[in-house]
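Reopening this one. Same input as before:
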Amino acid sequence: MRTDNVRAAAVQIAPDLSGRAGTMERVLNAIAEAADKGAQLIVFPETFVPYYPYFSFVLPPVQQGAPHLKLYEEAVVVPSAETAAVADAARRRRLVIVLGVNERDHGSLYNTQLVFDADGTIVLKRRKITPTYHERMIWGQGDGSGLKVAETAVGRVGALACWEHYNPLARYALMAQHEEIHASHFPGSLVGPIFGEQIEVTMRHHALESGCFVVNATGWLTEEQIAGIHPDPKLQKGLRDGCMTCIVSPEGRHLAPPLTQGEGILIADLDMRLIAKRKRMMDSVGHYARPELLSLVHDAQPALPIHQITVPPPVAPGEETERHKMMPAATRPNEEADHV
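Same output, byte for byte:
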Protein backbone atom coordinates (compact mmCIF):
# COMPACT_ATOMS: atom_id res chain seq x y z
CA MET A 1 0.00 0.00 0.00
CA ARG A 2 1.34 3.42 -0.94
CA THR A 3 2.14 5.92 1.79
CA ASP A 4 2.92 9.64 1.92
CA ASN A 5 6.62 8.84 2.33
CA VAL A 6 8.95 6.82 0.11
CA ARG A 7 12.57 6.10 0.97
CA ALA A 8 14.67 6.30 -2.20
CA ALA A 9 18.23 5.20 -2.91
CA ALA A 10 20.52 6.32 -5.75
CA VAL A 11 23.54 4.07 -6.27
CA GLN A 12 26.97 5.38 -7.34
CA ILE A 13 29.35 2.45 -7.66
CA ALA A 14 31.83 1.11 -10.19
CA PRO A 15 30.92 -1.72 -12.55
CA ASP A 16 33.12 -4.75 -13.11
CA LEU A 17 34.70 -4.01 -16.49
CA SER A 18 35.64 -7.66 -16.92
CA GLY A 19 32.04 -8.68 -17.53
CA ARG A 20 28.41 -9.15 -16.64
CA ALA A 21 28.80 -11.63 -13.77
CA GLY A 22 30.95 -9.36 -11.65
CA THR A 23 28.74 -6.33 -12.18
CA MET A 24 25.62 -8.34 -11.35
CA GLU A 25 27.20 -9.34 -8.05
CA ARG A 26 27.72 -5.66 -7.26
CA VAL A 27 24.13 -4.88 -8.23
CA LEU A 28 22.70 -7.53 -5.92
CA ASN A 29 24.99 -6.46 -3.06
CA ALA A 30 23.91 -2.83 -3.47
CA ILE A 31 20.24 -3.86 -3.50
CA ALA A 32 20.71 -5.71 -0.21
CA GLU A 33 22.60 -2.78 1.36
CA ALA A 34 20.00 -0.22 0.31
CA ALA A 35 17.14 -2.46 1.42
CA ASP A 36 18.76 -2.88 4.83
CA LYS A 37 18.67 0.91 5.10
CA GLY A 38 14.94 0.92 4.46
CA ALA A 39 14.94 1.85 0.78
CA GLN A 40 11.75 1.21 -1.18
CA LEU A 41 13.09 2.50 -4.51
CA ILE A 42 16.62 1.94 -5.87
CA VAL A 43 18.06 3.54 -9.02
CA PHE A 44 21.30 2.37 -10.69
CA PRO A 45 23.52 4.20 -13.23
CA GLU A 46 23.13 4.20 -17.02
CA THR A 47 23.77 0.85 -18.78
CA PHE A 48 25.40 -0.34 -15.58
CA VAL A 49 25.19 -4.01 -16.56
CA PRO A 50 27.68 -5.04 -17.74
CA TYR A 51 29.15 -1.50 -17.96
CA TYR A 52 28.81 1.74 -19.87
CA PRO A 53 30.90 1.64 -23.11
CA TYR A 54 33.51 4.11 -21.92
CA PHE A 55 35.88 2.83 -24.59
CA SER A 56 33.73 4.46 -27.28
CA PHE A 57 34.48 7.92 -25.88
CA VAL A 58 38.26 7.64 -26.17
CA LEU A 59 38.91 5.12 -28.98
CA PRO A 60 38.55 5.92 -32.69
CA PRO A 61 35.98 3.75 -34.52
CA VAL A 62 38.64 1.65 -36.24
CA GLN A 63 39.87 0.45 -32.82
CA GLN A 64 36.46 -0.29 -31.31
CA GLY A 65 35.78 -3.65 -32.95
CA ALA A 66 37.10 -5.91 -30.17
CA PRO A 67 35.62 -4.04 -27.18
CA HIS A 68 32.32 -3.62 -29.02
CA LEU A 69 32.10 -7.36 -29.70
CA LYS A 70 32.95 -8.06 -26.06
CA LEU A 71 30.07 -5.80 -25.05
CA TYR A 72 27.79 -7.90 -27.27
CA GLU A 73 28.96 -11.03 -25.47
CA GLU A 74 28.42 -9.56 -22.02
CA ALA A 75 25.17 -7.68 -22.74
CA VAL A 76 21.86 -8.61 -21.12
CA VAL A 77 18.99 -10.35 -22.88
CA VAL A 78 15.52 -9.51 -21.56
CA PRO A 79 14.32 -11.76 -20.00
CA SER A 80 17.33 -13.74 -18.77
CA ALA A 81 18.95 -15.15 -15.65
CA GLU A 82 20.17 -11.63 -14.83
CA THR A 83 16.72 -10.04 -14.98
CA ALA A 84 15.32 -12.97 -13.01
CA ALA A 85 17.87 -12.39 -10.26
CA VAL A 86 16.94 -8.70 -9.97
CA ALA A 87 13.24 -9.56 -10.08
CA ASP A 88 13.73 -12.05 -7.26
CA ALA A 89 15.54 -9.44 -5.15
CA ALA A 90 12.77 -6.92 -5.80
CA ARG A 91 10.11 -9.43 -4.82
CA ARG A 92 11.87 -10.69 -1.67
CA ARG A 93 12.66 -7.19 -0.35
CA ARG A 94 9.50 -5.51 -1.70
CA LEU A 95 11.51 -2.98 -3.71
CA VAL A 96 11.02 -0.98 -6.90
CA ILE A 97 14.31 -1.17 -8.84
CA VAL A 98 15.39 0.86 -11.87
CA LEU A 99 18.34 -0.76 -13.62
CA GLY A 100 20.25 0.41 -16.69
CA VAL A 101 21.52 -2.34 -18.98
CA ASN A 102 23.10 -2.88 -22.34
CA GLU A 103 20.33 -4.95 -23.89
CA ARG A 104 21.12 -7.36 -26.72
CA ASP A 105 18.32 -8.01 -29.15
CA HIS A 106 19.76 -10.39 -31.75
CA GLY A 107 22.21 -8.29 -33.82
CA SER A 108 21.76 -4.97 -32.04
CA LEU A 109 22.54 -3.42 -28.67
CA TYR A 110 20.30 -0.88 -26.93
CA ASN A 111 20.63 1.46 -23.98
CA THR A 112 17.76 0.08 -21.94
CA GLN A 113 16.08 1.03 -18.67
CA LEU A 114 14.24 -1.68 -16.75
CA VAL A 115 11.74 -0.88 -14.00
CA PHE A 116 10.98 -3.78 -11.64
CA ASP A 117 7.93 -3.41 -9.40
CA ALA A 118 7.90 -4.64 -5.81
CA ASP A 119 6.37 -7.95 -6.91
CA GLY A 120 9.29 -8.60 -9.28
CA THR A 121 7.36 -7.78 -12.45
CA ILE A 122 9.12 -5.76 -15.15
CA VAL A 123 6.56 -2.97 -15.56
CA LEU A 124 8.65 -0.95 -18.01
CA LYS A 125 11.35 -1.80 -20.53
CA ARG A 126 12.36 1.23 -22.55
CA ARG A 127 15.23 2.07 -24.87
CA LYS A 128 17.04 5.39 -25.16
CA ILE A 129 15.45 7.09 -28.16
CA THR A 130 18.59 8.80 -29.44
CA PRO A 131 22.08 7.66 -28.42
CA THR A 132 24.43 10.62 -27.96
CA TYR A 133 27.48 11.41 -30.10
CA HIS A 134 29.93 8.47 -29.73
CA GLU A 135 27.12 6.23 -28.47
CA ARG A 136 25.59 6.06 -31.95
CA MET A 137 28.39 3.68 -32.93
CA ILE A 138 27.30 1.34 -30.12
CA TRP A 139 23.50 1.33 -29.72
CA GLY A 140 20.40 1.31 -31.85
CA GLN A 141 17.55 3.76 -31.34
CA GLY A 142 14.53 3.22 -29.14
CA ASP A 143 10.98 4.22 -30.02
CA GLY A 144 8.00 6.02 -28.54
CA SER A 145 6.51 2.91 -26.95
CA GLY A 146 8.91 3.32 -24.02
CA LEU A 147 7.93 6.91 -23.29
CA LYS A 148 5.41 5.97 -20.65
CA VAL A 149 4.94 6.16 -16.91
CA ALA A 150 4.65 2.94 -14.91
CA GLU A 151 2.31 2.53 -11.94
CA THR A 152 4.40 0.98 -9.15
CA ALA A 153 4.27 0.30 -5.43
CA VAL A 154 5.99 3.65 -4.77
CA GLY A 155 3.96 5.73 -7.21
CA ARG A 156 3.96 6.69 -10.87
CA VAL A 157 7.53 6.25 -12.12
CA GLY A 158 8.91 7.68 -15.35
CA ALA A 159 12.44 7.19 -16.67
CA LEU A 160 14.88 8.79 -19.11
CA ALA A 161 18.59 8.26 -19.70
CA CYS A 162 21.27 10.93 -19.84
CA TRP A 163 20.84 13.47 -22.65
CA GLU A 164 17.29 12.37 -23.36
CA HIS A 165 16.64 15.09 -20.78
CA TYR A 166 17.69 17.61 -23.43
CA ASN A 167 14.75 16.50 -25.55
CA PRO A 168 12.00 18.62 -23.93
CA LEU A 169 9.23 16.75 -25.74
CA ALA A 170 10.43 13.41 -24.34
CA ARG A 171 10.28 14.90 -20.87
CA TYR A 172 6.88 16.42 -21.58
CA ALA A 173 5.53 13.02 -22.65
CA LEU A 174 6.23 11.74 -19.13
CA MET A 175 5.07 14.92 -17.46
CA ALA A 176 1.75 14.69 -19.29
CA GLN A 177 1.31 11.21 -17.81
CA HIS A 178 1.70 12.72 -14.34
CA GLU A 179 4.91 11.06 -13.22
CA GLU A 180 5.47 11.37 -9.49
CA ILE A 181 9.02 10.01 -9.33
CA HIS A 182 11.43 10.48 -12.20
CA ALA A 183 14.20 7.84 -12.30
CA SER A 184 17.20 8.99 -14.31
CA HIS A 185 20.79 8.05 -14.77
CA PHE A 186 24.01 9.07 -16.50
CA PRO A 187 27.27 7.15 -17.03
CA GLY A 188 29.38 9.20 -14.60
CA SER A 189 33.20 9.35 -14.81
CA LEU A 190 32.93 11.06 -18.17
CA VAL A 191 33.73 14.40 -19.82
CA GLY A 192 34.99 16.19 -16.67
CA PRO A 193 33.63 18.44 -13.90
CA ILE A 194 31.38 20.42 -16.24
CA PHE A 195 29.30 17.30 -16.89
CA GLY A 196 28.38 16.97 -13.22
CA GLU A 197 27.45 20.65 -13.10
CA GLN A 198 25.20 20.27 -16.14
CA ILE A 199 23.54 17.19 -14.68
CA GLU A 200 22.67 19.05 -11.50
CA VAL A 201 21.04 21.91 -13.42
CA THR A 202 19.10 19.47 -15.59
CA MET A 203 17.81 17.35 -12.73
CA ARG A 204 16.73 20.30 -10.61
CA HIS A 205 15.01 21.91 -13.57
CA HIS A 206 13.06 18.75 -14.43
CA ALA A 207 11.94 18.37 -10.82
CA LEU A 208 10.64 21.94 -10.83
CA GLU A 209 9.01 21.78 -14.25
CA SER A 210 7.43 18.36 -13.79
CA GLY A 211 6.52 18.87 -10.13
CA CYS A 212 7.95 15.46 -9.29
CA PHE A 213 10.83 13.91 -7.37
CA VAL A 214 13.99 13.09 -9.31
CA VAL A 215 16.23 10.19 -8.28
CA ASN A 216 19.40 10.26 -10.39
CA ALA A 217 22.32 7.81 -10.35
CA THR A 218 25.71 8.16 -12.00
CA GLY A 219 28.50 5.60 -12.24
CA TRP A 220 32.06 5.68 -10.98
CA LEU A 221 35.40 4.46 -12.32
CA THR A 222 38.49 3.75 -10.22
CA GLU A 223 41.89 5.03 -11.32
CA GLU A 224 42.89 1.47 -12.16
CA GLN A 225 39.84 1.10 -14.40
CA ILE A 226 40.53 4.41 -16.14
CA ALA A 227 44.11 3.34 -16.88
CA GLY A 228 42.81 0.04 -18.25
CA ILE A 229 40.46 1.78 -20.69
CA HIS A 230 43.20 3.95 -22.22
CA PRO A 231 46.89 4.46 -21.37
CA ASP A 232 47.10 8.09 -22.56
CA PRO A 233 46.92 10.49 -19.57
CA LYS A 234 45.43 13.20 -21.78
CA LEU A 235 42.53 11.00 -22.82
CA GLN A 236 42.14 9.70 -19.29
CA LYS A 237 41.02 13.20 -18.29
CA GLY A 238 37.83 12.53 -20.23
CA LEU A 239 37.08 9.56 -17.95
CA ARG A 240 37.07 11.45 -14.66
CA ASP A 241 34.51 13.47 -12.74
CA GLY A 242 31.10 14.03 -14.35
CA CYS A 243 29.32 12.46 -11.36
CA MET A 244 26.15 13.87 -9.83
CA THR A 245 24.16 11.24 -7.96
CA CYS A 246 21.33 13.20 -6.42
CA ILE A 247 17.77 13.12 -5.11
CA VAL A 248 15.75 16.29 -5.75
CA SER A 249 12.33 17.40 -4.48
CA PRO A 250 9.53 18.93 -6.59
CA GLU A 251 10.71 22.28 -5.23
CA GLY A 252 14.10 21.77 -6.86
CA ARG A 253 15.97 21.15 -3.62
CA HIS A 254 18.52 18.46 -2.89
CA LEU A 255 17.13 16.10 -0.25
CA ALA A 256 20.63 14.91 0.61
CA PRO A 257 24.10 16.19 -0.29
CA PRO A 258 24.82 14.83 -3.80
CA LEU A 259 27.59 12.31 -4.46
CA THR A 260 30.20 13.65 -6.86
CA GLN A 261 33.22 11.52 -5.92
CA GLY A 262 33.74 7.91 -4.95
CA GLU A 263 31.30 5.10 -4.36
CA GLY A 264 28.26 5.24 -2.15
CA ILE A 265 24.49 4.95 -1.86
CA LEU A 266 22.52 8.15 -1.45
CA ILE A 267 19.39 7.79 0.70
CA ALA A 268 16.55 10.28 1.10
CA ASP A 269 12.90 10.26 2.15
CA LEU A 270 10.37 11.57 -0.37
CA ASP A 271 7.40 13.37 1.15
CA MET A 272 4.87 12.76 -1.61
CA ARG A 273 2.69 15.61 -0.34
CA LEU A 274 5.22 18.02 -1.82
CA ILE A 275 3.94 17.16 -5.30
CA ALA A 276 0.56 18.76 -4.64
CA LYS A 277 2.27 21.68 -2.91
CA ARG A 278 4.31 22.38 -6.05
CA LYS A 279 1.52 21.75 -8.55
CA ARG A 280 -0.90 23.98 -6.69
CA MET A 281 1.32 26.82 -7.84
CA MET A 282 2.40 25.50 -11.25
CA ASP A 283 1.10 22.38 -12.97
CA SER A 284 2.79 22.50 -16.37
CA VAL A 285 0.45 19.90 -17.88
CA GLY A 286 -2.67 21.03 -16.01
CA HIS A 287 -3.87 24.46 -14.99
CA TYR A 288 -0.67 26.09 -16.25
CA ALA A 289 -0.88 24.44 -19.69
CA ARG A 290 -2.47 25.86 -22.85
CA PRO A 291 -3.21 22.72 -24.89
CA GLU A 292 -5.36 24.65 -27.37
CA LEU A 293 -2.18 26.55 -28.31
CA LEU A 294 0.58 24.01 -27.67
CA SER A 295 0.32 20.23 -27.43
CA LEU A 296 2.42 17.14 -28.05
CA VAL A 297 1.86 14.41 -30.64
CA HIS A 298 3.31 11.18 -29.26
CA ASP A 299 3.58 8.08 -31.46
CA ALA A 300 3.51 5.29 -28.88
CA GLN A 301 3.56 2.43 -31.39
CA PRO A 302 6.59 0.11 -31.35
CA ALA A 303 8.83 0.61 -34.39
CA LEU A 304 8.85 -2.84 -35.98
CA PRO A 305 10.99 -3.96 -38.97
CA ILE A 306 8.17 -6.10 -40.34
CA HIS A 307 4.40 -5.69 -40.58
CA GLN A 308 2.53 -8.88 -41.42
CA ILE A 309 -0.82 -8.90 -43.17
CA THR A 310 -2.93 -12.02 -42.69
CA VAL A 311 -5.30 -13.00 -45.50
CA PRO A 312 -8.71 -14.23 -44.21
CA PRO A 313 -9.46 -17.89 -44.97
CA PRO A 314 -11.89 -18.69 -47.82
CA VAL A 315 -15.58 -18.71 -46.93
CA ALA A 316 -17.93 -21.25 -48.44
CA PRO A 317 -21.01 -19.91 -50.29
CA GLY A 318 -23.83 -19.22 -47.90
CA GLU A 319 -21.55 -18.99 -44.88
CA GLU A 320 -20.66 -15.34 -45.08
CA THR A 321 -20.00 -13.58 -41.84
CA GLU A 322 -20.97 -10.02 -41.13
CA ARG A 323 -17.32 -9.07 -41.48
CA HIS A 324 -17.15 -10.51 -45.00
CA LYS A 325 -20.35 -8.78 -46.03
CA MET A 326 -18.86 -5.42 -45.07
CA MET A 327 -15.71 -5.99 -47.12
CA PRO A 328 -15.46 -4.44 -50.62
CA ALA A 329 -16.66 -6.95 -53.19
CA ALA A 330 -13.27 -7.09 -54.90
CA THR A 331 -11.60 -8.26 -51.67
CA ARG A 332 -14.15 -10.83 -50.48
CA PRO A 333 -12.81 -14.39 -50.47
CA ASN A 334 -14.32 -16.65 -53.16
CA GLU A 335 -16.07 -13.74 -54.80
CA GLU A 336 -15.60 -11.72 -57.93
CA ALA A 337 -16.07 -8.01 -58.00
CA ASP A 338 -18.98 -6.54 -59.89
CA HIS A 339 -17.82 -4.66 -62.92
CA VAL A 340 -19.73 -1.91 -64.65
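So the earlier flakiness isn't reproducible anymore. For the record, Residues 193-210 form the longest helix (18 residues).
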